[in-house]
TrEMBL record:
UniProt cross-references to InterPro entries, sorted A to Z: EF-Ts_dimer_sf, Transl_elong_EFTs/EF1B, Transl_elong_EFTs/EF1B_dimer, Transl_elong_Ts_CS, UBA-like_sf
Keywords recorded for this protein, A-Z: Cytoplasm, Elongation factor, Protein biosynthesis
Gene Ontology CC annotations of this record: cytoplasm
GO molecular function, one term: translation elongation factor activity
Protein name, UniProt field: Elongation factor Ts
Domain Translation elongation factor EFTs/EF1B dimerisation: residue ranges: 75-278
Organism in which the protein naturally occurs: Demequina activiva
UniProt cross-references to HAMAP family, sorted A to Z: EF_Ts
Family, per entry: Belongs to the EF-Ts family.
Length: 279
């Protein structure tokens, strides 16, 4: 006869997020001891980590936090991935994301690698994530971390599906004056996905490749030789307008650019970060 009740089963499911069958087996093995059953679920889950390594984790959420520091603010943005959107909206997964974000913030880590090595009560953050992955039964990955320090940091989190956590996250670092338009700029970044802040940030090899492609395309189109330099520069300029933030047409007023919006604020945008889950 089972030495646990339906209430015990429900309590263990709420505590771990594990499936009904797994919970019953754990309670049987633990002879009704809830704490032991939790440990059993964790151990069994950890044994499955290796099996899950090759699986894809392209769902999940983004989360952000901003702290006041001397001289300004520091913003932290993370992307935590799961295999399915079912787990992405699970309360246990969301709670894990909150714990991961808090750990990253406290450590000051600016990369996933550094964050995963952070100590959490005698374990690494990677071990904490693996333990929760074992209970949830899916591969869980801290994919990316961004950290921005500036006089003012603004965040914007966007839900692409009302039933899921935020899927797109943006941080914008600016001075106080540009901070007045920073949220609009963050929303623009979420929608238009610029790769660079200004043209000077685009790596030389990327510019060289774009110039080469533009020239080869123009030649293939039969453009006259003497017109090639102007055509190439025009197409390169188009690349900048599409990929650099300050050159993009502003989402709220396409007749102007983001650069002009910043300029009119009298301030300066210093950096930004944008994560979209799985992208």
């Amino acid at each position: 006869m089972a030495n646990y009740t339906v209430a015990d089963i429900q309590a263990l499911r709420e505590r771990t997020g594990a499936g009904m069958l797994d919970v019953k087996k754990a309670l049987d093995e633990a002879e009704g001891d809830l704490d032991k059953a939790v440990d059993i679920l964790r151990v069994k889950g950890l044994k499955g980590v290796t099996k899950r390594e090759g699986r894809s984790a392209s769902e999940g959420l983004v989360a952000a936090s901003i702290q006041d520091v001397d001289g300004g603010q520091v913003g932290t943005l993370i992307e935590l991935n799961s295999e399915t959107d079912f787990v992405a909206k699970n309360d246990k997964f969301v709670a894990l994301a909150d714990q991961v974000l808090a750990t990253v913030v406290a450590s000051g880590a600016d990369s996933a690698e550094a964050a995963l090595a952070t100590d959490v009560d005698g374990k690494t953050l990677q071990e904490v994530i693996d333990a929760e992955a074992g209970i949830l039964g899916e591969k869980i990955v801290l994919r990316r971390v961004a950290r921005i320090a500036a006089p003012a940091v603004t965040e914007y989190l966007h839900r692409t599906n009302k039933d899921l956590p935020a899927q797109v996250g943006v941080l914008v670092g600016s001075d106080a004056k540009a901070g007045e338009v920073a949220r609009d700029i963050a929303m623009h970044i979420a929608a238009y996905s610029p790769s660079y802040l200004v043209r000077e940030e685009v790596p030389e090899d990327v510019v060289a490749n774009e110039r080469r492609v533009a020239e080869e395309t123009a030649k293939a189109e039969g453009k006259p030789e003497q017109a090639l330099p102007k055509i190439v520069e025009g197409r390169l300029n188009g690349f900048f307008k599409e990929n650099t933030l300050v050159d993009q047409a502003f989402a709220k007023d396409p007749k102007t650019t983001v650069g002009k919006v910043i300029e009119n604020s009298g301030g300066e945008v210093q950096a930004f970060a944008r994560f979209r889950v799985g992208a």
